[in-house]
């Protein structure tokens, strides 16, 4: 059955990637009200014990996946910033020393935010770790990724605009059943900025406890959205991204970035570039110069899959946030096409949408050629801003559906990208209301470097054959 599906999917996917039909799903889901889960709900429960670590989460800590940054918060006193870890359960042979910090936001005083880099990991191994002290210590685990290899298989989840409602919980629980190994988060985390004064910090804390059930066990790769800006002059808070930057570290220095808001990592067979929609990005800015350099560091022979994350979608046919990504498109789209980015994931619009491979790099106002056209070198653009936050769904799409838009639906959910090898990946959008007899969006993504180039694949097949012949021990040749 699965084999049949695999055989059929390439045909289906070719249609999907290059086709011309457009789909606006008429599916209407039942949903919980768009209100945040009350603070006394068990989803936000504070772990028991004096100074017990809470809000535990991990992210990749280096360029190639041999390190993680482990973060947690304690409230009673700073306590220890050490992480004890090892390769077997409850046997922690190693210790890493971290640091702690805290911050204020109006009258809110954060807990002690601990961050500890755990490095020199062995690829493909399960690690057990412990944070906190005495009876209040807590134990978790994570799995180090496979080594950087062009055929390393790996399953990413993509979540955006999550918030902390019962719809958010449904998204998180569905994602946790998907088998995803790392979350690519496309911005707008807690929606704490929907609150005022002291409660902003309180809702960052509740969100940290909310996502711990996934975030403590696998890396979440962070990008920032508008809800992270928190420019709130009425209470004297005017430094952008303050709460986010204190709470959610990124390994930006490992990719030679000068700012935690934009950076890159390599994981398994993927090179992932994280951009900041709300930081300067035009020519001559640090983000622009860094991205220019980072694209030259991409080696598709080692990491065939080139993925870009940002918050504001470049192509979006929803009434909500229409054209907001146009300024970044004007600056970066040319590079996305030149470097054959496989897929660009964004959030911001609280709905799901996928584009065909299209570009608008020959945009010319004076000749009237100011619209996107099919382009085989262009990425697929996917908006996954449907995590389920308190602002509700963006239900009004532009009518008629533009030709570049392949599939769109206003429902909550998440996506997965399951990389199989250097040529193929299975992509799936998962509506939270699964189990219904309504098709969600799924297709095979062909790699832009390997999947579309027959000559390169033929060369690869030949060299594989050579290596098999020459490596075979003499005893086996008999
Ligand atoms: Fe947003």
UniProtKB/TrEMBL annotation:
Might you give the EC number(s) for this enzyme? 3.1.3.2
GO MF term list: acid phosphatase activity; metal ion binding
A GO cellular component entry from the record = extracellular region
Keywords of the record, alphabetical order, are: Disulfide bond, Glycoprotein, Hydrolase, Iron, Metal-binding, Secreted, Signal, Zinc
Annotated InterPro entries:
Calcineurin-like_PHP (IPR004843), Metallo-depent_PP-like (IPR029052), MPP_PAP (IPR041792), PAPs-like (IPR039331), PAPs_C (IPR025733), PAPs_N (IPR015914), Purple_acid_Pase-like_N (IPR008963)
Residue ranges of the Purple acid phosphatase C-terminal domain? 378-438
Which cofactors are reported in the record for this sequence? Cu(2+); Fe cation; Mg(2+); Zn(2+)
* Annotated ranges, domain Purple acid phosphatase N-terminal: 53-142
> Which part of the chain is the Calcineurin-like phosphoesterase domain?
155-352
Signal peptide residues on this chain, from the entry's feature table:
1-21
The record lists the catalysed reaction(s) as:
a phosphate monoester + H2O = an alcohol + phosphate
* Location(s) in or outside the cell: Secreted
The protein's assembly and partners: Homodimer; disulfide-linked.
**What family does the entry list?**
Belongs to the metallophosphoesterase superfamily. Purple acid phosphatase family.
Name listed for the protein in its UniProt record: Purple acid phosphatase
Question: What organism, scientifically named, is this protein from?
Answer: Cuscuta campestris
The top of its lineage is: Eukaryota, Viridiplantae, Streptophyta, Embryophyta, Tracheophyta
